[in-house]
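Postdoc handover notes: sequence design on the structure in folder B. Input tokens:
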């Protein structure tokens, strides 16, 4: 089916740069999941990327316990998912 529709291949979203701190890596995955406009503006990545939602959520969950309160507030604005790592709510 895909060969008949001629979909162009889409690159997988790359891992964030090793030079990013914990807050920036958490925002990288948050924006990749919920806000591609902010993602592109903040991280300077143009084009289209395939985002593995499961992988992005997993990466974000690993980072959440170590993000600053300011970053946690920004992430929390995107929904209850952001609170999962803290164990306070589950969607």
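Designed sequence:
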């Amino acid at each position: 089916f895909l060969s008949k529709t001629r979909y162009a291949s889409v690159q997988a979203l790359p891992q964030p740069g090793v030079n990013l701190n914990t807050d920036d890596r958490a925002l990288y995955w948050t924006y990749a999941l919920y806000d591609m406009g902010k993602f592109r503006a903040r991280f300077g990545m143009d084009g289209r990327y395939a985002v593995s939602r499961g992988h992005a959520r997993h990466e974000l969950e690993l980072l959440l316990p170590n993000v600053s309160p300011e970053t946690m507030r920004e992430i929390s604005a995107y929904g209850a998912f952001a609170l999962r790592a803290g164990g306070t709510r589950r969607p």
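Context for whoever picks this up: Residues 22-34 form the longest helix (13 residues). Don't rerun without checking with the PI first.
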